[in-house]
Each structure stands twice: as C-alpha cells, then as structure tokens.
Amino acid sequence: MEKFIKHTGSAVPLRRSNVDTDQIIPAVYLKRITKSGFEDGLFAAWRSDPAFELNQPQYKSATILVAGPDFGTGSSREHAVWALQNYGFKVVLSSRFADIFRGNSQKAGLLTVILPQDEIENIWKAIEAKPDTSITVDLESKTVTYGSTTLNFAIDDYTRWRLMEGLDDIGLTLTKIEQVSNFEEKRASFKPKTLPIR
Amino acid sequence: MKGQDVMGKTLAEKIWAEHVVSSTAGEPDLLYIDLHLIHEVTSPQAFDGLRLANRKVRRPDLTIATEDHNVPTLNIDKPISDPVSKLQVDTLRKNCAEFGVRIHSLGDVEQGIVHVVGPQLGITQPGMTIVCGDSHTSTHGAFGALAFGIGTSEVEHVLATQTLPLIRPKTMAINVEGTLKPGVTSKDIILAVIAKIGTGGGQGYILEYRGSAIRALSMEARMTICNMSIEAGARAGLIAPDQTTFNYVQGKPHAPSGADWDAAIAYWKTLVTDEDAKFDKEIYLNADELAPFVTWGTNPGQGLPLSASVPNPADIANPEDRGAAERALEYMDLKPGTPLKSIKVDTVFLGSCTNGRIEDLRSAAEVIKGKKIANSLRLLVVPGSARVRLQAESEGLDKVFLDAGAEWRSAGCSMCLGMNPDQLKPGERAASTSNRNFEGRQGKGGRTHLVSPLVAAATALKGTLSSPADL
C-alpha cells in the first residue's frame, strides 16, 4: 500500500446522498480478476449524462471527491474503492460513510475523511464558485485546508499510523501468529470444520 | 478490567470476547474467524495477493467456496456463455484447487447462494464468527453468530491468518414485541425497521433483534431479518439462539453429534444477552401494528405499508431526505399521492439470499396454487440453492409455479444484482423479494420495489402491487 501523508488537489462536488456501491460501480463491472481497470465502471450509469459532475471539464483533473452523506452504502465490494482510485481519486470527503466501504478504503489506501455536513456544504459552494480551488488534506496534522479555511478531522491513531506508513495488515498480524496458534489449540472440539466433506 | 466484568454483556459482546486473539490498547482487537465463506467475485484478487507473497491458506478446513453471483440460472449443464463471467468462475475453481479449498461448483447439489449453503450444511452454528466477501453475510446472525461482510483485502487477510483486526462496534437492540397479523412476514418487520432508523441508522452498531415477535419466527424467517441488517447500515445483526435454532441445526451434515452435541448445546445456551447488560441504543417496534411493506424509492429505507400512497417530497422536513426522495421519484417514475397498490409491475422476482429459501417458495406457492399470473408480467422463481430447488421439486412446487406461467430456474444470486443474464431492461419495473432497490441494481434503468414473498406472489397474480388479502 502506498503511504498517505498529505495530498493537495482540486475537488469535484457530488451533491447526492446515499450513493451506494451499486452506483459507484455496478455489478456487471465486477467481473475482472485484477485490481486495476475499474475506472470505466465508476458511476457508470451517470457517466453517460453530460451534466454529471465528473463529465464537466472544470472538474476533469479533480483528485478529491466531496460526497453527500451515507456514501458507500450497500455491498462489500472493494471494487468501489479500486474504481475511485483507478479513476484518480486520492481522498473522499463526506459527513457519513458506510462502515464496510470505510473499512475497505482504509485497507486500500484511499483516505476517507468525515466532516460535518455544514462544512461539506461550504466546500461544495467554494468548489462550485471556483472549480480550481486547491484543497490540502493532511493526515499528519489531521486537517483539511482550502482558501483561508482549515478544518480538523478525527481518525483513530492506529489507522492513521498504518496509512502514513503504508503498512499491510497481513504483515502486522503475522507478527502475532504465535498467539493465533495458541488460540487455535484452545478452540472447542464441537466447532464445525468444512473438511473433510460430510 | 474487573469493573467491566461486573456488568452483564450483550450477546454480541460475549461472542466478540470469546474470539479475541490479542488485544492492545489503542489498536483494533485481533479476532479469530471460525468460518470463511468464499465466492467468485470478491476472492480472485485475494488469492493473487497470497500468491504474490508466497502465502498459504492458513485453515482450508474453516473455508468453503461456492459459485453464486455470476452463474446463469438456465442451461447450467452448458459452459457459461459470457466469457468474462466464465473466467471469474474458472479462476475460483483454479484457486480452490491450488489452495486446497472445498468448492461447490455449478451442477453440484450443494451449490447455491453462499448464505443459503452455510446454514443448510449445518456449518453455520451459534456463537461463531463468520465472514464472507459479501455484505449479506449478516444472514448467519440468525443463528446467534457474529457474521459480517468484508472487502477483498480482508478476504486475503482471513485466508492468510484466519483472523481480522477489528474495532468493536457498539450494540443496538431492536425490540419487536407482539404478534404479526396473518399475511405479515419477517420481511415486513425488517423493511419497517429500516424505514424507521434509515439506511445509516445502524452504522457503527451490531444489531440484536429481540422480543416475542422475533422469538416466534422460524429460522428461515429470522435469516431474512438478519440478512437486511446491512440495509440499515449495520455490518452485523443477530438473534439469540433458542430451541428453534437448535432444532434447525441438529442433524445437518456438519452439526455436532454425540458428546460434541451436548457440549455445544451447553455452550449455546449461554449465548443470550445478560439481563443487566446495557445496549448503546434501543429501538422499539410493535408487531401488532405492522402491515405488508413495500419500498417506493431507491434505497431500502424508502418504504411504506402497502396501503399507503407515494409520499410527497415537499412533506419531508430533512433537506437531505427530501432531495433523495425527489431524485428517487424521478428515477422510479412515480407521482406523489399515487396509491402504492395501483402501481403496475412488469417482472416479479422470487429468490435471493433474503427470500430464496424453501419456506419462501412454499408461502408464495400457496398463494399461487391453481391460479395464473397476470398476462402482462413475468414471474422468475430462483431457488437459493440447488438443494432448495430439489426440495421444492419433491414437494411439487415447481409444477405450481410452472402451471401458473412462471419461470422455474436454477440456483444463484440471479436478478438480485443482475450480474448474470437475469436483468431488468431499462424502464422495467419489478416487485422483488431481494434486498436492494438501488438505481440500476437489477439492470441498468430498472426499477425495483422490495416486497415479501407473499406480496410478490399476490402481485404476480394481480399485476399491480398487492397482498394476498387483495386477491
């Protein structure tokens, strides 16, 4: 996973609530067996509409998505995160994220930042007034800065450390694998096994 | 800490505590996973990750795969015609062979939707931690298991270590007291819960469904409720195991037997929320007042009793909800004030991990028996697993559906998510027993009304959204 410390870029407003993972990437686009190439499926149903925000020339180079509340609801498909990353997004701002989507983004290195809805509204207005507004998201200082505004955001220390170091969870868990073995020795004998087939 | 031990624990907290491998302040708990279910869509990149790092599957004996999301429900004896779907399914088969994972492929009697297969094999049991790269893993919570959906990075993590680092969610009690009226089902309970707390209401919580109305439900009805916990934003939802649960598990292929059964029962009986335990939040619903429910919008929280009319967004105070309602009505092509019962549908879908079990098929067949579906629509019946299909055929349910003019298909996720050829056409309207009415979920431009199997059956006969009482 790539380290995330700080990112500066322009942003695109997505003034919709409850953007579920079927909107982020419809199921028919989930058939690839790689982690790349999903940008074509990103918001596929809306991309054919020239008025859709991502199609507007002023937002073409945006790397920060400013989304409405309850972003990423629905399915557990990590493809939603990959599609956003493949398209070029580094950060998503929203007042509320669905749990699984947020977990997936933190595993894959897409930074999801929670801000109050009125601040999201202010950012939407700022971008709409001036689409090349530069926004800096700093994970070290836990701040989002644009123009003269600086906003603090919360993120648990452990996730922040992992993202800033670009650490892979499996590697971290393998340092505790002896404890896993000890746990396994004490598991009850009645717990089911899938093998041998019965 | 002693102080914490004095207070009682909720069911979710008990199962969590039983599975903590290691706990360090300021870090997520490392949780042991008892069962990992796999399917073709969310696993290929995880197996690739293992190969790249030269890692093995730590516990193939706690892992099981089935083919469900992509598979056709017609001509399953022929090769899959969509080459991209075929590659994904072939990749799963290859990965399972390489890493020693048990797989139930298309044509196998145990093949089916992963959340139907686990319970019918008896590998879903009380007190377990169960994960799968699918958000409807919450289904298994009906057995008093802690079960939740995970992303592909987590699939890889579980394959490699049989654990997951997780921060413990808060707990919420959903208390449903009273008695359901005839024609009202567990699907109506969960749709009413989601309408009440919203699609984000359960975010950060594990839900526990409690109360006399829940206790009275069969295992399959309980699975329908837990299945849709994710639609309320909760990663997991569970129900304390009881005699209904034990009876369902007993005798299944992987159920404990002999002394193991006695030990299991003794343990399972401890899996209740202590009387002095405190939930972080409690919700109350009166089962006596519930009616058949149907969604009118494009998220599962946008639902109303079938007797109601399409709401007017102007009446919604919250600006986010109002905006969402306006967009939803435009997408659904519905006008405020239209009685829901006057809405004409083109397709009825009976199936999915929410309502594709034998009891669901039986209840729909009872409504349809001896009648014909409306000329204007198609009824697609897709059993949740090959076993469910066989069971239904042994009871003659296939004949009931076929005689009525329905299509009787093979098992899979099918039109619930339209990843295989079973899709709605643009503008087509469906009454569906599945779990999501998102824009385009069942096919680009398709419109979905979520309903119970009883409402699906009545709607198929009448052509408009209906309950059996309307026939």
Structure description:
The complex is a heterodimer of chains A (198) and B (471). Chain A has helices spanning 21-24, 44-47, 79-87, 99-108, 117-129, 157-165, 169-174, 177-185, and strands at 6-9, 11-14, 64-67, 91-94, 111-114, 135-138, 143-146, 149-152. Chain A has 198 residues and is of the alpha/beta class. The radius of gyration of chain A is 19 Å and the shape is globular. The termini of chain A are far apart. The mean pLDDT of chain A is 96. Chain B has 471 residues and is an alpha/beta fold. Helices cover 33% and strands 16% of the residues of chain B. Chain B has 17 helices and 19 strands. In chain B, strands 5-4-3-6-7 form a five-stranded parallel beta sheet, sandwiched between helices. Chain B has a five-stranded parallel beta sheet with strand order 17-16-15-18-19, with helices on one face. In chain B, helix 3 (44-52) crosses helix 6 and helix 14 (358-368) packs parallel to helix 17 (453-462). The termini of chain B are far apart. The chains are: A alpha/beta (198), B alpha/beta (471). The interface between A and B is large, with 62 and 89 residues.
Number of strands of chain B: 19
Annotation field: number of helices of chain A: 8
Oligomer: heterodimer
Q: Structural class of chain B, please? A: alpha/beta
What is the molecular shape of chain A?
Answer: globular
Fold topology:
The complex is a heterodimer of chains A (198) and B (471).
Chain A: E1 6-9, E2 11-14, H1 21-24, H2 44-47, E3 64-67, H3 79-87, E4 91-94, H4 99-108, E5 111-114, H5 117-129, E6 135-138, E7 143-146, E8 149-152, H6 157-165, H7 169-174, H8 177-185
Parallel strand pairs in A: 2-3, 3-4, 4-5
Antiparallel strand pairs in A: 1-6, 6-7, 7-8
Chain B: H1 2-6, H2 11-18, E1 20-22, E2 29-32, E3 35-38, H3 44-52, E4 63-66, H4 83-99, E5 102-104, H5 114-121, E6 129-132, E7 146-149, H6 152-161, E8 163-166, E9 170-177, H7 186-197, E10 205-210, H8 212-215, H9 219-227, E11 236-238, H10 243-249, H11 259-268, E12 281-286, E13 293-295, E14 303-305, H12 319-332, E15 347-350, H13 352-355, H14 358-368, E16 378-381, H15 386-394, H16 397-404, E17 407-408, E18 429-432, E19 447-450, H17 453-462
Parallel strand pairs in B: 3-4, 3-6, 4-5, 6-7, 9-10, 9-12, 10-11, 15-16, 15-18, 16-17, 18-19
Antiparallel strand pairs in B: 1-2, 2-8, 13-14
